[in-house]
Amino acid sequence: MTADLFQEPEGATPLSPKDAKGLIPTWVATRADLNAVEQENIAAAIAWVSTSPRMSSLVSLMTEESMKTLHRHMFGDVWKWAGGYRQHDTNMGAHWPHIPTQVHELLADVLAQTADAEHLPWPADELAVRFHHRLVVIHPFPNGNGRHSRLAADTLVHVLGAPTFTWGSENLSGSGEARRSYLEALRTADSLYDYRPLVEFARS
């Protein structure tokens, strides 16, 4: 394997040596190989989401099992640990023993916020983006948290009756201007609790 295989773009979670050993396809040798096989797996997951009853209602979507199942569908052909929470701390995210509690609280909050569909606390776009942001902050999984939380937010906003997001209309897995804009919008939400840049980016 080449040295760049597990080199992550800016703002991504580096894999631990133990997690890196969970790679399933034995032929993957470069970062380009890894990106391609992950993207193929994610495309299959998007197709699954569009037909899954679990992903079609708020009550069934906003469960820990659904969040884990979504991650497993996105990365289960690539990583042995797909669908399982982190078992160690990383450069970002919640202290790992607190992940189940924080995810449970987030999902419960969304169900409370959407209990009255006629009186949401924010427009559907902002509610879904706030959910995305909190899930990124928790960082429940060893890797793939940004991609997972974006697809989860896409699914949530669709269930709320709005179109899925476009997220800069580019692949955010690699470096580039779109990823820099996305990370800056996340940091604005972190520091100022201002979600407007993230909403604008999600719809760009």
Distance between the termini: 36 Å
Strand tally is: 0
Number of discrete domains: 1
CATH class designation: Mainly Alpha
Key traits:
0% strand; mainly alpha; Fic-like fold; 204 residues; 9 helices
Please give the structural blueprint.
Blueprint: H1 17-20, H2 31-51, H3 58-61, H4 64-75, H5 99-113, H6 124-138, H7 145-159, H8 177-192, H9 196-202
Helix pairs in contact: 2-4, 5-6, 6-7, 8-9
Report on this structure:
The chain has nine helices and no strands. With 204 residues, it is mainly α. It has one domain: Fic-like fold (Orthogonal Bundle). Helix 6 packs antiparallel against helix 7. The longest helix has 21 residues.
Concise structural overview:
With about 200 residues, the protein is mostly helical.
